[in-house]
Amino acid sequence: MTKVLIKGGRIVTAVDDYVADILIENGKVEAIGRQLNSDEAEQHDATGLLVMPGGIDVHVHMETPMGNGVETCDSFESGTRSAAFGGTTTIIDFAQQFKGDSPKQALDRRLAAAEPQCCVDYGFHVILTDVTRAALAELPDLINQEGVSSFKLYMAYPGVVMVDDAAIYRTMRKVGDHGGMVNLHAENGIVIQAMIEEALEAGQTSPKYHQLTRPQLMEGEATHRVIRIAELAEVPVYIVHLSAKEALAAVVEARDRGIPAFAETCPHYLFLDQSEYDRPGFESAKYVMTPPLRNHECQHALWRGLRFDDLQIVSTDHCPFCFNENAYGILKSKQYGKDSFAKIPNGAPGVEFRLSLLYDGGVNAGRITLNRFVQLTATAPAKMFGLFPQKGTIAVGSDADIVLFDPHQRHTLSASTHHSNVDYSLFEGRSVQGKVQKVFLRGELIVDGEIWLGRAGMGRYLSRAASGRIL
Ligand SMILES: [Zn+2]
């Protein structure tokens, strides 16, 4: 395999910041030093650029069935190509067990779909929806043999994917002993369902009722409840897509007592608020994701959480549905729910813009440091989900997943230039400073400016070590 030499860049990890050269051999970082030379190496001048570990997005939904035939509109190929253009070189997607299904079969189905398509490296969390004795019995092998050390459970969507507190407790007890962790979608699904029925009975069907029937209090309640269950089960717990200040308060309270409770938030909760639901007509369906966008107070709380490590990770929850029906059909479109908010597919795109948004609105805006930026987007995800030090940093022996990032270049986020299949952006027209220039996956240049050099199927499955073993 060719050698690659990245010259003169400013190398930034979660802790370091210095100018040096990086020599890559056989897909791994071979040496870091000043004035490295290699005649046979492919050379890249990184003068004036930030050289950072490839992003790791631990919450994405590529070609994911949502029930009733509805499915997200990015394939593993289009979604991972979009990720790569945004500087993300590893994703962790989901493999969902259905009723009567085996968790191992769920994983095998997703592996078969992902393997020929993925353009970046990938892993899976297994979603459990039918927590039977037989399903629980499979989990130690999934952790120890298959490299799946995180399991997602839903406290929302009763009758679809929701499980009860006993199932959560049993899963935690089972996986905790083997280095596994449980990820929770924390909302009180029973009360929310009652509120949705109330709204529909009153004839309230427009998209804004999605937000009005999913109150912050019910995210706070479920987050508090599940952390207490994890405390009882004596296992780490991870809250996905945390959005409400009431939920963050529950995480902060637990962490202050030394409980290993962790949480992620997403760019849309940091940069958008619930005023988007005031848009006219069906336009606001673009912002129908779960949890919904929140108020300004929540945004302030989330930024504080990121600074003080009460939130450890920024993921995207990339769950794209086209706004218009035409390109991929009604089953991959928000139009599926045009008559009722309760039928609008829940989810929004974002895998490509995570680094640019967080760099511009976080680092440039003075809210987080550059090292913290790398920690939130690469290092903590790798450590949290058993990929470190293979992934998540730039160090001798680590995979050469490297992003060359121009901290000065301005660009405009838009669906007309992004690489996802989805036909809209939550951030359409937003100008940001800081742009991905080149992306290397295990030493291979896959993105060069606007040029795509990657290939479907070049991504590798990542067998992960224990999850949740960080502080
Ligand atoms: Zn999600």
CATH top level of the largest domain is Alpha Beta
Q: Give the low-confidence spans.
A: none
The rounded Rg comes to: 21 Å
Tertiary shape: globular
CATH superfamily descriptor of the largest domain? Metal-dependent hydrolases
Tally of individual helices: 12
* Amount of helix: 25-40%
Bound small molecules, which ones? zinc ion
Q: What is the count of distinct domains?
A: 2
How many beta-strand segments?
19
What fraction strand? 15-25%
Content-based structural category: alpha/beta
* CATH architecture classification name of the largest domain: Alpha-Beta Barrel
Largest beta-sheet characterization: 9 strands, mixed
- Taking all residues together, what is the mean pLDDT? 97
What distance lies between the first and last C-alpha atoms, to the nearest angstrom? 38 Å
Q: What is the CATH T-level topology of the largest domain?
A: TIM Barrel
